[in-house]
């Protein structure tokens, strides 16, 4: 009556059409407001003016400015700056269009996923049932739902018959929930009398009054929670910004330095400005924007082939830097289908087959008790297979009915053949459906083995079924149910329940033929047959089993230093069982509860830090402070959050991000969408995922498989490595491009390299080789490294700049100048005559300039020689870039170890050579690009420098492998062979016998162990290395574990092996607070 008054509705006839129209006009259609979409022109502008493009636009504007100044100063200004400005603008526009096209393609695939709102709803208005478009359902409508329908709005149930709904997309619970008019819980998500918009009714029927529509539904509120979150920048976007700052800093520093120097050397103010602009533009790597875009696109395509659809190109790299994955359970880690896992009969627990194709070994089916159990499970069961699935494997067939009954149906069909034929041979006479009061389901059949009798079969809550039994079936014989058998039942029930499985009990009873002959009228309402003193047959337990590939994927994540946290709406026991099954909680690691049980003490007496694993209930999380949550995330390596709400998933993600972690979140339900949006990278499920979750995610797993994430992580790490290699390759040629301009200003020599030839390098010969590095195979340790620390491990760091600019770049510049001086010397201008000659050389009116041998040169002749020098300098850069490309293939390994298997890279080498030859020798290039043919011998001028680069880098890498402290650690750090301890239980593998760091001085120990004892810093480095990556990948110096006034407390257990030459260390560290690392070497050594 209260509902009827509140919503002004007749509970039998529903609303009037007039009233419904008024409410629809007032509230609007029953649909979720689509998230605010970014206009296409804004997306396009972002591609044109975002990140790296800004640098090129600034370069283009400066070029146009320089050309304008020259046009104002000179009668016939050179067009170089104009060409350069136009080309830079063209590069930005072309790459912008390309990136926009890639993103638009992903958006189109996204649009094809739309599947959120049900099309039709069955409403009762003015006493008549009618099918209407679900968008026209209004608050107060009387709605009827049946098994297979999608709930059209939030409903308050007023009547139901065996109604069950699948709330997994909302709460994460895979078990269907019963719906009835009774109010059972304060929490709307837990109570039985409310059905939620867009969840599915799996069986039965129900009537309800609509209480919320559209954005006001629970689903709508969660969707708006996701759309209200601000999205942070991706790590690669921050890396590119950092790179732009470095390049801009270098360019402005060089530009200003030479601007001041030009004024000191007596150049006019306008000439100095032209030089300033020229140097800044020369520092801009024009081809790099296209290279980065193409590299990311190639990786996105590679990932699409491996079932990962990337919506945003930059998300590719984010996945590679991920240090924490917060994964949903249902449908992501598990198969999202209930499956029979165990059975208990004949006083034994039998394991069923839960593999995805259910092809594994099974139990002995010859027992007569199993035959009886299978018959009860098949007959006392309302689930049926949907029609038209004859060629589909049984385990993959769709069913109509409750998830648990469907699991039983498939299990019996696989074990005993057609259940439908079994039902035909044993026709049903009557049944009592399951209800929350009785907690059992019962049916009576005419059995094939008793031509004139009836058999009663029953299933339900095990303890309720056992209470109705007085005997038990063992080996096909009925025996009294004594205390011993009750204890055996209790132990089996607790064991199966402890595995997080849903357990059902089964019993039967052959009704006396004299009292219940064939044709007897059974009454299911006024029960006129016995329902006690039955015969207990056995138990069957069900679980939503893990996907086959998940345990291996979790193991790979762990070895890659990635922490996997389970976040689910399911029950803590089930969540813990699945976490153990997939390896999120590894074998031997205990929770606080496990320790309390083992020691037989109350939970509050256990020190939480002793437990490596932790299961946190959503109700505890609700009252938890941020500091407490941070402590849990920091102190426990293996964490499961159960019974969490969407808001709490968000809190967990924010907590991980506070730890400095790059967080990936996986999920398929609407309940996951706020966390997907907040995460650094959201990963939605393509098959089972809701539309809202796909909208919020950055990436979609087309096969719904958690294992695909590991592929994504590897690809993300590979793209970061390869981008680094591409950038190192591209930046190196900046030095031989800038130095000619600098010497032109300082030494007043003829310009060695022109603007057009610089463009031919950056946008011509260097492009394909730089892109080819994106195809470089992963180095062997890529999934063994700790995740990248975004604060310290930059895309472009000091080491890369020093390598590209300070070492290889300088050798390349020397090669170019050597070629330049050789050509001018061959033409009569020896190097000593070139200094200070620039003004005369560029004077159009001077046609009698003498060379070193007294020969006179006209302006035109001088310019032909100058442009030939430009072409030769360009060719020399191509030659030295051969070696640069080959050395950029690896970071540490010798090129001989890595090999030349990258066919695209070999093609890149041939392409840049062919393009250089074409530009040099093609007729007409002298007019079009001012590039002139070269003597064959001039190509060989740079060969020694190319060889020098290759030899120099191979020696450098050899020294790095021998003495790695030079690159990866502060001076005095031992090699990685000494520091390869990782979090987890892996042993520390120590230096090989040949290592120069071995110290065999300590008597009675193999050399490896004595290294640690004789060199205390080696132990410290090992410990530091092992602590890297704890808590989201941050580096913790060991000294920070203990204040200066205390000594570090270590408990070591040593395991020495003479034969394998390694030492295993089991470490226990305790600390109270941190301090800065200010010890001197001597102080640190003395503390051990």
Automatic annotation (TrEMBL):
GO cellular component, one term: organelle membrane
Spans annotated as Disordered: 166-185
Membrane topology reported for the UniProt record: Multi-pass membrane protein
Domain Cation-transporting P-type ATPase N-terminal: 1-68
Biased composition range(s): Polar residues: 166-181
Protein name: Sodium/potassium-transporting ATPase subunit alpha
Keywords: ATP-binding, Cell membrane, Ion transport, Magnesium, Membrane, Metal-binding, Nucleotide-binding, Phosphoprotein, Potassium, Potassium transport, Sodium, Sodium transport, Sodium/potassium transport, Translocase, Transmembrane, Transmembrane helix, Transport
Subcellular location, record wording: Cell membrane
Catalytic activity: K(+)(out) + Na(+)(in) + ATP + H2O = K(+)(in) + Na(+)(out) + ADP + phosphate + H(+)
């Amino acid at each position: 009556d209260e509902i009827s008054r509140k919503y002004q509705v007749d509970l039998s006839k529903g609303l009037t059409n007039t009233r419904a129209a008024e409410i629809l006009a007032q509230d609007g259609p029953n649909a979720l407001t689509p998230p605010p979409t970014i206009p296409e022109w804004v997306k396009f502008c972002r591609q044109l003016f975002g990140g790296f493009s800004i640098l090129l636009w600034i370069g283009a504007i400066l070029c146009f400015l320089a050309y304008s100044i020259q046009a104002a100063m000179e009668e016939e200004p050179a067009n170089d700056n104009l060409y350069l400005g136009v080309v830079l603008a063209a590069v930005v526009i072309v790459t912008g269009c390309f990136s926009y096209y890639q993103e638009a393609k992903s958006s189109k695939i996204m649009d094809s996923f739309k599947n959120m709102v049900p099309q039709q709803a069955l409403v009762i208005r003015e006493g008549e049932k009618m099918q209407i478009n679900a968008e026209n359902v209004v608050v107060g409508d009387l709605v009827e739902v049946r098994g297979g329908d999608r709930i059209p709005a939030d409903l308050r149930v007023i009547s139901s018959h065996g109604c069950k709904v699948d709330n997994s997309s909302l709460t994460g619970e895979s078990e269907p929930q019963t719906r009835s008019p009774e109010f059972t819980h304060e929490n709307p998500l837990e109570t039985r009398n409310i059905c939620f918009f867009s969840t599915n009714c799996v069986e039965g029927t129900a009537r309800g009054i609509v209480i919320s529509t559209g954005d006001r539904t629970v689903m709508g509120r969660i969707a708006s929670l996701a759309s209200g979150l601000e999205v942070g920048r991706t790590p690669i976007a921050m890396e590119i910004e950092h790179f732009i700052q470095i390049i801009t800093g270098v360019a402005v520093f060089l530009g200003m330095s030479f601007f001041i120097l030009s004024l000191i050397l007596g150049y006019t103010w306008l000439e100095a400005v032209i030089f300033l602009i020229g140097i800044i533009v020369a520092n801009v790597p024009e081809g790099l924007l296209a290279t980065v875009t193409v590299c990311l696109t190639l990786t996105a395509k590679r990932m699409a082939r491996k079932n990962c659809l990337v919506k945003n190109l930059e998300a590719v790299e984010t996945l590679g830097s991920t240090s924490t994955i917060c994964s949903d359970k249902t449908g992501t880690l598990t198969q999202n289908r209930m499956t029979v896992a165990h059975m208990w009969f004949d006083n034994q627990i039998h394991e069923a087959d839960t593999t995805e194709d259910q092809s594994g070994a099974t139990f002995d089916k010859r027992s007569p008790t199993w035959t009886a159990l299978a018959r009860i499970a098949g007959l006392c069961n309302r689930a049926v297979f949907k029609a038209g699935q004859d060629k589909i494997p049984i385990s993959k067939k769709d069913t109509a009915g409750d998830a648990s009954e469907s699991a039983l149906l498939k299990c019996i069909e696989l074990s005993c053949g057609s259940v439908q034929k079994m039902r035909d041979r044993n026709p049903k006479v009557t049944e009592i459906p399951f209800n929350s009061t009785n907690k059992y389901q019962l049916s009576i059949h005419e059995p094939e083995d008793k031509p004139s009798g009836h058999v009663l079969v029953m299933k339900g809550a095990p303890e309720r079924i056992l209470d109705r039994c007085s005997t038990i079936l063992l080996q096909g014989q009925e025996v009294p149910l004594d205390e011993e058998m009750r204890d055996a039942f209790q132990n089996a029930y607790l064991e199966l329940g402890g595995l997080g499985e849903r357990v059902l009990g089964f019993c039967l009873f052959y009704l006396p033929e004299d009292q219940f002959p064939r044709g007897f009228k059974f009454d299911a309402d006024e029960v006129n047959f016995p329902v006690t003193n039955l015969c207990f047959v056995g138990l069957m337990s069900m679980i939503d089993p893990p996907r086959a590939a998940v345990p291996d994927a979790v193991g790979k994540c762990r070895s890659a230093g990635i922490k996997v946290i389970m976040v689910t709406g399911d029950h803590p026991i089930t969540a813990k069982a699945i976490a153990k099954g997939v390896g999120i909680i590894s074998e031997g690691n205990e929770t606080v509860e496990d320790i309390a049980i083992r020691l037989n003490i109350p939970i509050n007496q256990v020190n939480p830090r002793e437990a490596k694993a932790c299961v946190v209930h959503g109700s505890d999380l609700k009252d938890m402070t941020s500091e407490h949550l941070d402590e849990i995330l920091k102190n426990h390596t293996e964490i499961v959050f159960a019974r969490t709400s969407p808001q709490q998933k968000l809190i967990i993600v924010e907590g991980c991000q506070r730890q400095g972690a790059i967080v990936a979140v996986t999920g398929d339900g609407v309940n996951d969408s706020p966390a997907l949006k907040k995460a650094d990278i959201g990963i939605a499920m393509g098959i089972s995922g809701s539309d809202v979750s796909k909208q919020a995610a950055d990436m979609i797993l087309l096969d719904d498989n958690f294992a695909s994430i590991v592929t994504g992580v590897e690809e993300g790490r590979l793209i970061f490595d390869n981008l680094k290699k591409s950038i190192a390759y591209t930046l190196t040629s900046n030095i031989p491009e800038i130095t000619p301009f600098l010497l032109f200003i300082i030494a007043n020599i003829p310009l060695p390299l022109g603007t057009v030839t610089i463009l031919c390098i950056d946008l011509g010969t260097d492009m394909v080789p730089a892109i080819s590095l994106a195809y470089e195979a992963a180095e062997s340790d890529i999934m063994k490294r700790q995740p990248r620390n975004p604060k310290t491990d930059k895309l472009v760091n000091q080491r890369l700049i020093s390598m590209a600019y300070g070492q290889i770049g300088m050798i390349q510049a020397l090669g170019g100048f050597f070629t330049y001086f050789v050509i001018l010397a061959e033409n009569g201008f020896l190097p000593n005559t070139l200094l200070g000659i620039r003004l005369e050389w560029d004077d159009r009116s001077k046609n009698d300039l003498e060379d070193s041998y007294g020969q006179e040169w006209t302006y035109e002749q001088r310019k032909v020689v100058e442009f030939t020098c430009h072409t030769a300098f360009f060719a020399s850069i191509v030659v030295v870039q051969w070696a640069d490309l080959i050395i950029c293939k690896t970071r540490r390994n010798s090129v001989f170890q890595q090999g030349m298997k990258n066919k695209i890279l070999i093609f890149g080498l041939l392409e840049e050579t062919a393009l250089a030859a074409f530009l040099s020798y093609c007729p007409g290039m002298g007019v079009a690009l001012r590039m002139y043919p070269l003597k064959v011998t001039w190509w060989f001028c740079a060969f020694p420098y190319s060889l020098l680069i290759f030899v120099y880098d191979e020696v450098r890498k050899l020294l790095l492998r021998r003495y790695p402290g030079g690159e990866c650690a502060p001076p005095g750090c031992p090699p990685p062979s000494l520091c390869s301890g990782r979090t987890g239980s892996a042993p520390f593998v120590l230096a090989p016998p040949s290592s120069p760091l071995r110290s065999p001085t300590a008597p009675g120990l193999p050399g490896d162990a004595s290294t640690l004892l004789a060199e205390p810093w080696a132990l410290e480095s090992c410990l530091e290395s092992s602590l890297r990556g704890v808590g989201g990948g941050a580096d913790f110096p060991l000294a920070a574990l203990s204040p200066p006034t205390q000594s570090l407390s270590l408990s070591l257990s040593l395991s020495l092996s003479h034969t394998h030459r390694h030492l295993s260390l089991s470490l226990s560290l305790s600390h109270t607070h941190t301090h800065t690392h200010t010890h001197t070497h001597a102080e640190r050594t003395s503390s051990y």
